């Protein structure tokens, strides 16, 4: 099972690493991290880097294609024709094409979500409609072979959902136990529909501050 995870400067690392921790436990899994160019990719936090071993000219097939999101760079990726063409080409070969957070906007920009329901991070989900997708506020949305997950942590749920489809419930439960994924949040504010208005406003301020502090320069 070849899992291809696309990485790019400014990526939100948990969008990729959360699902990776689940999907690497698939039977006969082969994980490939790929970027437009090989080398170091710095996360949107500016604190974490990953050394990517493959570039997009070397990867033409995936059983699972995963597009993570970003706090700062997803719109630039959504304008990069070379990357969008590659995503389209590889998605044609996939059993499942999946995204986390604003990765769905990249999929939508590639035309893969046209007239399909999709989810995204709550702060920018409405952008999906600009690319002819149908914004839907759910944690996980599946439309055909395309699965989109909401913000950041939802990628873990999406990956477990995916394992359930590919290998069945027992395997999905076993992997969930292996990573001890047993969330019990202290507060009921992790969903846009349950968060208080003042919490939503503060969350927006914190994201804006993080955006202002991001530095992807070498």
Describe the 3D structure:
- Residues 1-164 form the DJ-1/PfpI domain.
- InterPro entries: Class_I_gatase-like, DJ-1/PfpI, INH-QAR.
- It comes from Aureispira anguillae.
- This is DJ-1/PfpI family protein.
- This protein has 218 residues and is an alpha/beta fold.
- The protein contains 7 helices and 11 strands.
- The strands form 3 sheets. Strands 5-2-1-6-7-11-10 form a 7-stranded mixed β-sheet, with helices on both faces. A two-stranded antiparallel sheet has the order 3-4.
- The N and C termini lie far apart (35 Å).
Show unreliable segments: none
What is the chain-wise order of helices and strands? EHEEEEEHHEHEEEEHHH
Distance from first to last alpha carbon: 35 Å
Radius of gyration: 16 Å
Q: What is the mean pLDDT? A: 96
Organism: Aureispira anguillae
Pfam families: DJ-1_PfpI
Domain DJ-1/PfpI: 1-164
Protein name: DJ-1/PfpI family protein
In short:
This protein is an alpha/beta fold and 218 residues long.
Set down the secondary structure blueprint.
Blueprint: E1 2-6, H1 13-23, E2 30-35, E3 39-42, E4 49-52, E5 54-55, E6 64-67, H2 74-77, H3 81-93, E7 96-100, H4 103-109, E8 117-118, E9 134-135, E10 140-143, E11 146-149, H5 154-167, H6 169-178, H7 197-213
Parallel strand pairs: 1-2, 1-6, 2-5, 6-7, 7-11, 8-9
Antiparallel strand pairs: 3-4, 10-11
Helix pairs in contact: 1-5, 5-6
